[in-house]
Amino acid sequence: MAAMTDPVRHDHIDRFNAAVLSGDWSALIATLHPDAVMTFAGVPVGPFHGRQAIADAYATNPPGDTMRVVEVRPGTDGETVAFAWSRGGTGTLDIRRRAGQIIGLHIRFD
C-alpha cells in the first residue's frame, strides 16, 4: 500500500474528480461499456443499468466530494480502489473491465 503522503493516481478517479469540479461527466461516461452497471453498498441508491442510466444518475444527483486514492489492488478483470472522500469518510470502488471499457462499478462506503 502506498504511504498516505504518496500521491497515488488512477485514471477513473482523475476523471471522476474532474467531473465533480466541472459538472461535465462526458469524459467519465465515455469510458463506460454500453451495458455497464453501477451498484452501491451502504447507501440507498441504485443500481443503475446501462451507460445512459449511469449518465442520468450523475446528471440528476451529482456527487459533491472528490476522491483521493489510497491504494489500488489489481484483479483479474479490473481493480479495487481504496479511497478517501474530500469531506471525510472512506470506501472502496471495484472496477470491472471488458474490451477496454468499464463494465461494472461497485462502490462501498465504510
TrEMBL record:
InterPro entries: NTF2-like_dom_sf, SnoaL-like. Residues 14-95 form the SnoaL-like domain. It comes from the Bacteria. This is SnoaL-like domain-containing protein.
